[in-house]
Amino acid sequence: MRLTEAIRSALSAIGANALRSLLTMLGIVIGVAAVIAMVAIGSGARNLVDRQIRSLGANLAIVTPGNVTQGGARLGAGAASTLTDEDAAAIKREIEGVTAAAPFVRGGNVQTIYGGNNWGTTVYAVDLDYFAAREWEVEAGREFDPEEIRRGEIVALLGKTVAKNLFGDSDPLEQVIRVRNVPFKVVGIMANKGQSAFGQDQDDAIFVPLDAGRRRVIGRNYAKDRSVGSIFVKFDSEADIVPGIERATALLRQRHRLAGDQEDDFAIRNLTEIANTASASASTLSMLLAAVAAVSLLVGGIGIMNIMLVSVTERTREIGLRLAVGARPRDILGQFLIEATTLATIGGAIGVALGVGAAQAIARAAGWPALVAPQAVAIAVGFSALVGIFFGFYPAQRAAKMDPIEALRRE
Question: Which domain holds residue 16?
Answer without folding.
Answer: 3-52+278-409
